[in-house]
């Protein structure tokens, strides 16, 4: 009877997902630090009594696979003795199931009449958890011991009583204790809100029926996922992409994935990927599984509820000791950069599946610029994510100015930054002539530049995609490269994509970051000349770019398409390599340090 | 000759109908539903009003006020028919408008289309100037550049100009200089608006977007309101016209023409204001309103008699799916709105199955054409209305006093074929299932305005109206654990009636971004006094008497570091220190209530002052005319189905049958504009204001 009642199941499914959304809203509204409230780097989850996810309040897809490992370990090691009013804290990737140290989980078991019925989980990226760099994401770390406070699974609450010792350790180890405690309070409020709603929901149906519903809904999610996978042709689809590398003399880091579709299940294997590195960009396995789920869900165009059952047909494997499955004590605080490259690699492989509608690649994940300093004994830190653009899509252009689908972060209001921090923002704009040409144009790159106002401070940078550009699709051209220039007391210098350590700067220093642009899809000579004209009128591209990369000539006033001249241009035999070279030359002319720093 | 009676008019425009309500100074009420005239909505008002005046013998000069709720602003955005708009901004920041907040409203959706900016990049002009966060001037305005910009605006055929500079909330001097210069340089029909006049608040994208929306709407709304007053004058009606704004207050027609971004949710606000008014009157200060029509259901929270407000809104995002987490579906408008959560579920919602085999209701709708299967106009996919007719809740032959004929047999067949047979259910069980899903969907809208904001719906009564609201109200109440349901008189034209009971009210804000240290009391008070003075001047300029003005103070506060403020009441009439202390106490308490935690040791930041100016007016609360006469005439009966209850013959009453005595469910109340179902286990009576008040049984499913 229960199994054949799709109505009750639909209601329970919606009730759980709206409860998880409610948890997320509680955090959004009451969190303290900019990275939580403005960037929205956090997630919430509800799990069943076995620790399997039944709903996620998703604000950040990179957390999609965050909960299964930590929940498995929690249930395996701490189920005995768990009691009402307990809540657990953990961030350790090695042994705790965490992602990186700034991401602190708070998980509360939910009891009804003495029986465990589920868990409320939250995961928040905290502004600072100690370690060698302000913001706890220093690239130069070589071991996790340098990255901040490691929290194994510990009880923050024991039968409703908060553990003051744990709180004292947390506060003593953070540069920003007020923000840390504020954000943690938001997490506590969130799991408490979940508990109220969950108890009411379970009581409505009774425990036995409710448990049955959850089993059915796991099966339902699995069924949907299998249907979608079965619709893809069987085969092995592989792809390789790169991160430029670390420090002043970067060496490329290779990402190789092989996706095997067999009937209604899929195997995703990362064999061939580079070994772990001496720097903070190693990504423990939960990040790797997260990105795999994100890519598959984006590829299948179906609305699948966040019941763990959908993960059953998916197997993710990576050799131990690779950068996507590192062993302790590999540093991992800045692992975001490889998460986005994994997503790109997966998209590349999925794009090989006949009938797929995967876009050309986007900017390759947000760049992170962080400024920090001390003011009268108090630390100030701003971790600013510079979001990017999407690549051209089948039937439509990429998007100018948008978050990577792997993260869905927001940007921080400039006026809030200027009102609060000793920083001035000099510009926030699209870069003309960036992005990759194509029948469907790649999204324009973002530029954001800053001026330091405090006497002294530090700047850190995490970026990529200067040597290895966003990859185009179906004859489009690659996206434009990313650059960062720093001018401090004189000439501007080009910073490496990932400098190994903070750079000291002084008042008046100016930094301009140019993100990578999205890649194009389809031959640019097939682009509607009117669309090219529109881009010229909007100054998204220059008349030179229209001519050299799109084969479109305009009249002398630049207000309309010269059809005859365009036909001549487009009739010339021009290879994609020639077009790419012309595109990059124009990009370099338009977007250089002298122009962008004014 | 005795003094002539005077009349006030409420006019509410919907997609299908324009509702006109006239109330006389002695309390008589006249109603008319008139087909809307989408080519020019003002025509429908004037036709409907003219006919009603003629029928009732009301002379034009006896009409003393017309209050209007309009969808013209929101439709302009949804249909992309606004003005060709320019934006003038600080050098380096012309893309702020288009970049927005860069989030995607649906995860994993690689087909996402960003809303097209309402000012094209080629029409976004940058000027050399720079104001700092503390209001200081880093770079003076290059006024010489404005001449060329004005020429280009004219050459490009632009119709509106928005001006929004970085940090102008802290010092508007450059914005004003540009505005004054352009007003001198441009032809007068070009609409010029600047952010310091529309939304002087911190956050550059939200302020820019709001100002651009204002410009985009400006010429269209101005033209519409001019047409409306012109047509009214032609039939001799020359009274003041007031427009309902999104926050439920009334604006003069001039203010609405200058700040059309304030009237985007004019229509939904009218219903909520009406609900708040009637619920207060009937002794229910805490209610959740549910307004359900053919395609959507809207919910709003009223607490202590006041509708909940929000300043986070996106226009053009289509239906608000009640997730406040993900933005990016539309254009941000950060002005005061009544917090209305909208869900794509109404009488016309189509029934189907998703890929995994679960039953779904909406959000696709059969609309009014072809409409539900029972309308017999060619639609074969069953809708929620078809489920209601199958369950016996709706009249089996016709609704709207016979104006719309219904084919119950076809509805039943469609439900049987699409839902019952594939699921192996009886047709009735399929109907009940559809109702349960629709109830769950609409409950989400109710949760969005209650549990999501930290309010327990069980502490509220449910106040339902709209064509379909009363039909499903009791099921929503059951699901949410709500014990009392109220159905006001004339639920179908309730919003138009509500217009006659709203106050003239306008909200003013000023951002003063700083920490509230203990000795800041005097400057805090000074900030309020400054804004209060400005607000008063603006109201006086609109012609209201100083003695009639009443102001309420609020401060937007948050803990240092938080991104979102809580609008906290600050009772005026205290000295600075006391004012600050009360504000902080209220903030900590409100934070605790909303989020479950507060820390009075943490520093608190002031973001903005808010002053609400209200015009006190003489309004009779003599509501005897709402009362319904008892009716003991024989009533109809028909067969209907309820969960866990056998088919049964149940009474079909009208409101009058419930006056003399409370009656136990199950029964149905049928009226001209709505149908109301009282299931088993509930009792209902009509109160002295004509409301049907239902008490749900103690058993909560």
TrEMBL record, chain A:
Q: Signal peptide span per the entry? A: none
Recorded hits in Pfam families, A to Z, give:
Hydantoinase_B
Indicate the segments forming the Hydantoinase B/oxoprolinase domain, all copies.
5-524
Q: InterPro entries from the entry?
A: Hydantoinase_B, Oxoprolinase-like
Q: What is this protein called?
A: Hydantoinase B/oxoprolinase family protein
Instruction: Please name the source species.
Output: Sphingomonas colocasiae
UniProtKB/TrEMBL annotation, chain B:
Domain named Hydantoinase/oxoprolinase N-terminal: residues: 8-184
Q: Where is the Acetophenone carboxylase-like C-terminal domain?
A: 521-689
Q: Which InterPro entries match?
A: ACX-like_C, ATPase_NBD, Hydant_A_N, Hydantoinase_A, Oxoprolinase-like
| The Hydantoinase A/oxoprolinase domain, residue ranges | 207-507
| Family annotation (PANTHER family) | 5-OXOPROLINASE RELATED (PTHR11365), HYPOTHETICAL 5-OXOPROLINASE (EUROFUNG)-RELATED (PTHR11365:SF23)
Q: What is this protein called?
A: Hydantoinase/oxoprolinase family protein
Q: Which organism is it from?
A: Sphingomonas colocasiae
């Amino acid at each position: 009877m229960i199994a054949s009642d799709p109505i009750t199941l639909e209601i329970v499914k919606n009730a759980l997902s709206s409860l998880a959304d409610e948890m997320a809203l509680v955090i959004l509204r009451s969190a303290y630090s900019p990275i939580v409230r403005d960037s929205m780097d956090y997630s919430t989850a509800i799990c069943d009594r076995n620790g399997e996810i039944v709903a996620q309040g998703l604000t950040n897809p990179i957390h999609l696979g965050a909960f299964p490992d930590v929940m498995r370990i929690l249930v395996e090691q701490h189920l005995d003795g768990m009691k009402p009013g307990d809540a657990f804290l953990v961030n350790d990737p090695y042994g705790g199931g965490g992602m990186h140290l700034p991401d602190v989980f708070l998980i509360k078991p939910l009891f009804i009449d003495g029986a465990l019925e589920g868990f409320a989980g939250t995961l928040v990226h905290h502004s600072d958890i100690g370690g060698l760099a302000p913001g706890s994401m220093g690239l130069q770390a070589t071991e996790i011991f340098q990255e901040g406070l490691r929290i194994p699974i510990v009880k923050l609450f024991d039968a409703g009583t908060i553990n003051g010792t744990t709180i004292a350790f947390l506060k003593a180890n953070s540069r920003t204790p007020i923000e840390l405690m504020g954000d943690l309070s938001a997490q506590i409020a969130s799991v408490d809100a979940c508990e109220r709603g969950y108890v009411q929901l379970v009581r409505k149906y009774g425990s036995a029926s409710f448990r049955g519903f959850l089993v059915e809904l796991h099966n339902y999610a699995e069924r949907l996922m299998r249907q979608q996978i079965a619709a893809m042709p069987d085969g092995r689809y592989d792809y390789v992409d790169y991160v430029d590398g670390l420090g002043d003399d970067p060496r490329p880091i290779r990402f190789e994935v092989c996706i095997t579709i067999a009937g209604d299940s899929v195997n995703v294997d990362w064999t061939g990927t580079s070994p772990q590195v001496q720097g903070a960009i190693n990504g423990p396995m939960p990040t790797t599984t997260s990105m795999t789920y994100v890519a598959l869900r984006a590829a299948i165009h179906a609305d699948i509820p966040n019941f763990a059952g959908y993960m059953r047909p998916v197997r993710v494997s990576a050799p131990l000791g690779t950068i996507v499955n590192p062993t302790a004590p590999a540093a991992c605080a800045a692992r975001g950069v490889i998460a986005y490259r994994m997503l790109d690699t997966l998209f590349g492989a999925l794009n090989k599946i006949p009938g797929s509608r995967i876009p050309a690649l986007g900017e390759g994940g947000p760049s992170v610029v962080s400024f920090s300093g001390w003011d009268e004994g108090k630390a100030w830190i701003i971790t600013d994510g510079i979001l990017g653009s999407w690549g051209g899509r089948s039937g439509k252009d990429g998007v100018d100015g948008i978050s990577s689908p792997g993260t869905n972060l927001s940007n921080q209001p400039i006026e809030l930054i200027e009102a609060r921090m000793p920083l001035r923002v000099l510009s926030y704009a699209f870069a003309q002539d960036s992005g990759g040409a194509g029948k469907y144009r790649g999204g324009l790159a973002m530029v954001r530049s800053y001026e330091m106002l405090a006497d002294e401070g530090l700047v850190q940078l995490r970026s990529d995609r200067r040597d290895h550009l966003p990859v185009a699709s179906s004859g489009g051209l690659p996206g434009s490269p990313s650059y960062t220039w720093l001018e401090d007391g004189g000439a501007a210098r080009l910073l490496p994509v990932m400098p190994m350590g903070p750079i000291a700067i002084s008042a008046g220093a100016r930094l301009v970051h140019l993100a990578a642009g999205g890649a194009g899809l389809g031959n640019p000579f097939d682009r509607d000349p009117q669309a090219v004209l529109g881009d010229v009128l909007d100054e998204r591209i220059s008349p030179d770019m229209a001519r050299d990369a799109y084969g479109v000539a305009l009249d002398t006033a630049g207000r309309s398409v010269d059809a005859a001249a365009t036909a001549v241009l487009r009739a010339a035999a021009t290879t994609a390599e020639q077009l790419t070279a012309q595109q990059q030359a124009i990009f370099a002319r338009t977007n250089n340090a002298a122009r962008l720093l004014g | 000759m005795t003094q002539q009676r005077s009349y006030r008019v409420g006019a509410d425009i919907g997609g299908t109908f324009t509702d006109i309500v006239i109330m006389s100074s002695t309390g008589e009420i006249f109603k008319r539903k008139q087909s809307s005239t989408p080519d020019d909505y003002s025509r429908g008002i004037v036709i409907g009003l003219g006919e009603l005046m003629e029928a009732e013998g009301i002379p034009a000069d006896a009409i003393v006020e017309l209050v209007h709720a309009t969808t013209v602003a929101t439709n302009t955005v949804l249909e992309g028919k606004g003005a060709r708009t320019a934006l003038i901004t600080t050098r380096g920041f012309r893309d702020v408008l288009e970049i927005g907040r860069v989030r995607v409203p649906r995860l994993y959706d690689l087909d996402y289309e960003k809303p097209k900016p309402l000012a094209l990049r080629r029409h976004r002009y940058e000027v050399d100037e720079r104001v700092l966060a503390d209001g200081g001037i880093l770079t003076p305005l290059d006024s010489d550049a404005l001449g060329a910009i004005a020429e280009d605006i004219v050459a490009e055929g632009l119709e509106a100009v928005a001006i929004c500079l970085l940090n102008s909330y802290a010092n508007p001097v450059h914005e004003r200089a540009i505005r004054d210069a352009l007003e001198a340089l441009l032809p007068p029909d070009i609409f010029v608006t600047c952010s310091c006049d529309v939304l002087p608040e911190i956050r550059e994208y939200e302020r820019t977007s709001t100002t651009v929306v204002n410009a985009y709407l400006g010429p269209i709304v101005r033209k519409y309101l001019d047409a409306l007053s012109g047509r009214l004058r032609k039939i001799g009606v020359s009274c003041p016209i007031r427009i309902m704004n999104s926050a439920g207050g009334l604006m003069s027609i001039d203010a609405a023409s200058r700040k059309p971004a304030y009237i985007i949710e004019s229509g939904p606000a009218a219903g909520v204001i009406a609900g708040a008014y009637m619920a207060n009157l009937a002794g229910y200060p805490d209610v959740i309103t549910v307004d359900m029509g053919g395609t959507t259901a809207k919910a709003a929270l009223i607490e202590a008699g006041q509708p909940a407000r929000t300043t986070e809104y996106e226009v053009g995002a289509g239906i608000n799916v009640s997730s406040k987490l993900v933005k990016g579906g539309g254009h941000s408008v950060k002005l005061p709105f009544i917090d209305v959560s909208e869900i794509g579920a109404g009488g016309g919602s189509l029934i189907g199955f998703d890929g995994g085999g679960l039953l779904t209701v909406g959000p696709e709708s059969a609309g009014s054409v072809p409409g539900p299967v029972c309308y017999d106009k060619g639609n074969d996919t069953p809708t929620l209305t078809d489920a209601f007719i199958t369950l016996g809740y709706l009249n089996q032959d016709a609704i709207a006093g016979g104006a719309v004929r219904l084919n119950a047999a076809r509805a039943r067949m469609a439900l049987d074929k699409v839902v019952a047979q594939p699921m192996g259910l009886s047709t009735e069980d399929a109907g009940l299932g559809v109702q349960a899903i629709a109830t769950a969907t609409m409950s989400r809208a109710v949760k969005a305005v209650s549990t999501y904001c930290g309010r327990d719906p069980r502490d509220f009564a449910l106040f339902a109206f709209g064509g379909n609201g009363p039909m499903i109200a009791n099921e929503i109440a059951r699901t949410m654990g709500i014990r009392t349901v109220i159905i006001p008189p004339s639920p179908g034209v309730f919003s138009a009636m509500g217009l006659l009971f709203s106050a003239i009210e306008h909200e003013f804000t000023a951002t003063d971004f700083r920490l509230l240290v203990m000795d800041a009391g005097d400057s805090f008070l000074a900030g309020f006094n400054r804004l209060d003075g400005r607000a008063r001047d603006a109201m006086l300029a609109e012609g209201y008497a100083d003695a009639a003005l009443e102001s309420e103070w609020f401060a937007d506060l948050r803990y240092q570091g938080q991104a979102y403020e809580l609008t906290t009441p600050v009772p005026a009439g205290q000295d600075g220190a006391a004012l600050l202390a009360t504000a902080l106490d209220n903030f900590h308490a409100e934070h605790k209530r909303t989020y479950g935690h507060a820390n009075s040791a943490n520093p608190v930041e002031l973001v903005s002052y808010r002053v609400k100016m209200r015009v006190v007016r003489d309004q009779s609360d003599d509501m005897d005319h709402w009362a319904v006469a008892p009716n003991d005439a024989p009533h109809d009966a028909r067969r209907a189905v309820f969960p866990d209850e056998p088919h049964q013959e149940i009474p079909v009453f009208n409101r009058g049958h419930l006056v003399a005595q409370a009656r136990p469910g199950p029964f149905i109340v049928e009226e001209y504009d709505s149908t109301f179902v009282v299931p088993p286990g509930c009792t209902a009576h009509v109160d002295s204001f004509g409301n049907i008040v239902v008490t749900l049984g103690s058993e909560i499913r």
